[in-house]
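>> received
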Amino acid sequence: MTSCCPAPDAADGAALCWLDDIPDGGSLTVNFDAQPVILLRRGEAVWAYLNRCPHFSVTLDAAHGAVLTYEAQVLMCAHHSALFRFEDGLCIEGPCQGAALDAVPLRQHAGRVYAADSKPGNAPARSGPGSSDG
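>> returned
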């Protein structure tokens, strides 16, 4: 499943997206503070990580911008097939096993997802198609 959503209204301040913009069990890529970030969702829980694999610091997404997720449990690096848990970004299989993704703290309010340290008026932009569900 691929998800690409319109940017939040200016009145949304620094909202990264609506919770429902992130497919349940899938991912959405956005830019925050000029860095690509992957948002992962399972039910009401959302996690965010920099889009950078700890193995050679390459992006996790495929050439077309999709981030592969499996069974709402793990995301996979498109370049080295490393698997990372949603809950803590820990690599559980692959060349960087034991390493973890860099987390981006989040907060939710009124159905919107924000970076925890975001300031009003700093609305980030979406970065194209951003999810895949397997």
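>> The mean pLDDT is 82.
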